[in-house]
Amino acid sequence: MLKKYFYLSLMTLSALTIAKTNKKTSDLCTKYKAGTYISYIKDIFLITQDCKRRLLNDTESQDITRKGYEVKQVAVDVILGIPKEPLKKTFTFEEVRSKYKNHCVSAGKITYLVMQAGKKAYFSRDIAKKSCPNGIDPITLKELRVLPDLEPFAAPKNLYPPVKEGNVPKKISTKTACAKLKDNSFATFHSRIYQIKTRNNTCYLLELSSQSHEVRMQIGEITPTELTPSQFVSLKKEKEKENPKKLSKKG
């Protein structure tokens, strides 16, 4: 009888401990909402949509620090109270779509709206912020890659205003324009995305399709060079061919 009472007491204590832990986690999830960055010692974590803490790698940590995102320093009890995101190797299209459908998501520089058939890219982060009243949810690159690319949202009509007389950028030599541009690296000018290519010891700009899945994934993981107006008007430009092959990330 005493032994039975002892085991019942242990079960009751265990149930109370679990209930207390669940309440603490719920309180922490209310305080640290999805998309919040928290830090303990040198580690930085992202709070996911389902209230898990995802440890960021060095590149991701440096990127959010460079961009000036708010990172909240927390005590060890917060780290212990918010469950660690379980590792998952693969995702299906159906489960990713179900999780993020009608949500705005981003895993880097590009923001998307998740729709029934895939993801639709916004022209810019600023436009996405205005179009996403419920905010922009964080999404992993593994999840993002299983969503097919749809035709991007159209660019604003007034993006490229006519050049006024006396305001034309000065042309420079091709050698000077190419001096700081590495072969196969990426560059941008306003909304346009280019890859630096070399032919006959001279660089030129290969304009990339705004819908290219591989391009968008790569641009989201690196910081492209912003061309100066003088570089832009001085370099030869070519259009990307249909069905581009996977691009190199050299340089």
What are the SSEs and their pairings?
Elements: H1 2-31, E1 37-40, E2 43-47, E3 53-55, H2 58-66, E4 71-73, H3 76-81, H4 93-100, E5 104-106, E6 111-114, E7 119-121, H5 125-131, E8 136-138, H6 141-145, H7 174-178, E9 186-189, E10 192-199, E11 202-207, H8 213-221, E12 225-226, H9 229-234, E13 237-239
Parallel strand pairs: 1-4, 5-8, 9-12, 11-13
Antiparallel strand pairs: 1-2, 2-3, 5-6, 6-7, 9-10, 10-11
Low-confidence stretches: 2-20, 244-251
Rg computed from alpha carbons, rounded to a whole number of angstroms: 24 Å
* Mean pLDDT figure: 77
Question: What's the SSE pattern?
Answer: HEEEHEHHEEEHEHHEEEHEHE
Q: Which shape, going by the Cα principal axes?
A: elongated
* Alpha-beta content class: alpha/beta
Structure write-up:
The protein is of the alpha/beta class. The protein has three domains: 24-87, no CATH class; 93-145, no CATH class; 174-239, no CATH class. It is 34% helix and 20% strand. It has nine helices and 13 strands. It has helices at 2-31, 58-66, 76-81, 93-100, 125-131, 141-145, 174-178, 213-221, 229-234, and strands at residues 37-40, 43-47, 53-55, 71-73, 104-106, 111-114, 119-121, 136-138, 186-189, 192-199, 202-207, 225-226, 237-239. It has a five-stranded mixed beta sheet with strand order 12-9-10-11-13.
